[in-house]
Specification:
- It is built from 18 helices and 15 strands.
- It is of the alpha/beta class and 502 residues long.
- The chain has a single domain, classed as Amidase signature (AS) enzymes, CATH 3.90.1300.10.
- Helix 9 crosses helix 11 and helix 9 crosses helix 12.
- The two termini are 39 Å apart.
- 53% of the residues are buried.
- The structure holds glutamine.
Length: 502
């Protein structure tokens, strides 16, 4: 059945749907041997999608904001182009926190995302900001979905909905066509039902893109491949050293989360891997640094939505007069189209970047970011491929770089991956979320932001069931995720370990 144009528009505008369904389905021009042939993939609505057929309008790209409520993109984001080339069908666009700012997908101009999961009859948070993508995957509305992860927005919803959420290393997937929140942190991520599926999507998306200035160039990708694929690294990895950072064992962890974490570790120990405690001392400052840096970048990125260059324009005059210290009525009204959380972040960012405050806030936060990166580099056996010392020209030098970073007193030190919980608690009920202050909401990200600050690959998988697999469903309702973090570029190992946990 071929839907009419009207049906298409109606579905697109019915924003109470978790997902605006795309009736314009066509992958006729793609060979059926392509890896994603016929796979329905939903796209978070801060990633641009154009029309793929002249008879049909483009799907919307709203970033869940009133300011972009009527926007359609003339082009597809690079990641969407790649999906289509691999045979995927764009299932539709998914709801989110406005511009990706939030942890529960409740800050949307198109109403909150509703999770299908409940506790004692009370609706639970879907997590955010990619909550719509997570729910679309969890409910089988699509095979997999794209999200974006700036400080945890793919991993947190994955944990809360019992799905897999993978944030690759910063720079591996193109950000071209992704509406910026905080460019130095924004990463396209993948939500899927299992690691096998996430891997297929990742393989289709990864690659250099000259249109994204932060896309890792082919030479760096080759260096990463040489480092990770070196015989010495491969040999070492038959038995993994898994690091457990003490700083992640915060008082706020609920007993169920702590139990799931230690259950995961003992299962991996039983399989012959060793589990070692490590210390990442700057972790305790990571959340504060993140909430200085991300809003600072956001305030700069969102300046362009002035109703002239981007965004809808409000009624009013622009007579150049100043009223109450504000430059123009039209500008104020236009910027008033942003939701409360976005406005809060713009103000916060504008303040921390202001002449009086920049040294105390923005500059300090950048320092902390450096220290967080250094902490991670200090515990991983694999050197950071972006660090100068880790730019070997040959396999022999690769081995030397690895040894010098990992050998001490004749022992190989350094871990291959870190394992932590994804979130301190199972999903809260929406009633609890409604009562939280924004700072309490920011607390949900405490375990996900450190990897974001360092650009590291990190994957959330549902925690293994308590006994033998029988109560898997109950566990999914619990919504406890385990996070695997690896060295930059070590995405393959992160997925391998996540698959072992699954
Ligand atoms: N919750 C975090 C924030 O609001 C992370 C969001 C994200 O990763 N897009 O900034």
């Amino acid at each position: 059945m071929r839907p009419t144009r009207d049906v298409h528009l109606k579905m697109v505008r019915a924003r109470s749907y978790q997902i605006s369904v795309n009736w314009n389905i066509s992958n006729e021009h793609v060979r059926d041997t392509e890896p994603l042939y016929g796979r329905l993939i939903a796209i978070k609505d801060n990633i641009t999608t154009s029309s793929s057929h002249p008879d049909f309008p483009a799907l919307p790209t709203t970033a869940a904001s009133r300011i972009l409520a009527d926007f359609t993109s003339p082009y597809d984001a690079s990641v969407v182009e790649r999906l289509k080339r691999a045979g995927a069908i764009i299932a539709g666009k998914t709801n989110l926190d406005e511009f990706g700012m939030g942890s529960h997908s409740t800050h949307s101009h198109f109403n909150a995302v509703r999770s299908p999961f409940t506790r004692d009859g009370h609706a639970l948070s879907a997590g955010g900001s990619s909550g719509g993508s997570a729910v679309a995957v969890a409910t089988g509305q699509c095979w997999a979905a794209l999200g974006t992860d700036t400080g945890g927005s793919v991993r947190l919803p994955a944990a809360y909905t019992g799905t897999v959420g993978f944030k690759p290393s910063y720079g591996l997937l193109s950000r071209w066509g992704v509406i910026a929140y905080a460019n130095s942190l924004d990463t396209v991520g993948i939500l899927a039902r299992n690691i096998t599926d996430a891997r297929v999507v990742f393989a289709a998306l990864a690659g250099f893109d000259g249109r994204d200035p932060t896309s890792l160039p082919p030479s760096t990708r080759a260096r990463i491949a040489a480092l990770v694929g070196s015989p010495r690294v491969r040999e070492r990895r038959t038995r993994l050293r898994i690091g457990v950072p003490g700083e992640y064992n915060i008082a706020e962890l609920t007993p169920s989360v702590r139990a799931a974490w230690s259950r995961t570790l003992s299962q991996l120990r039983q399989r012959g891997h060793s589990v070692v405690p490590v210390s990442l001392p700057t972790t305790t400052h990571a959340l504060s640094a993140y909430y200085v840096l991300a809003p600072a970048e956001a305030s700069s990125n969102l300046a362009k939505y002035d109703g002239v260059r981007y965004g809808s324009r409000s009624d009013g005059t622009d007579d150049g007069q100043t009223r109450g210290g504000v430059a123009s009525a039209l500008f104020t009204a236009t910027r008033g189209a942003f939701g409360a959380e976005v406005r809060r972040r713009i103000l916060l960012g504008a303040y921390t970047l202001s002449a009086d405050a920049i040294d105390n806030y923005f500059v300090q936060a950048q320092r902390i970011r450096r220290l967080v990166q250094r902490d991670f580099d200090g515990v991983f056996a694999l050197p950071n491929p972006l660090a100068r010392a880790a730019a070997p020209a040959s396999a022999v030098e690769d081995d030397r770089a690895l040894e010098s970073s990992a050998a001490q007193d004749g022992h190989l030190v350094g871990v291959d991956v870190l394992i932590t919980p994804t979130a301190p608690t199972p999903p809260p009920t929406l009633a609890i979320v409604a009562k939280q202050t924004s700072t309490e909401g920011y607390m949900n990200d405490v375990l996900t932001v450190p990897a974001s600050l360092a650009g590291l690959p990190a994957c959330s998988v549902p925690a293994p069931p308590a006994s033998g697999g029988g109560d898997r469903d109950r566990e999914m309702e619990e919504g406890v995720g385990v996070q695997v973090i690896g060295q930059l570029g070590d995405d393959g190992l992160v997925l391998d370990v996540a698959a072992a946990v699954e």
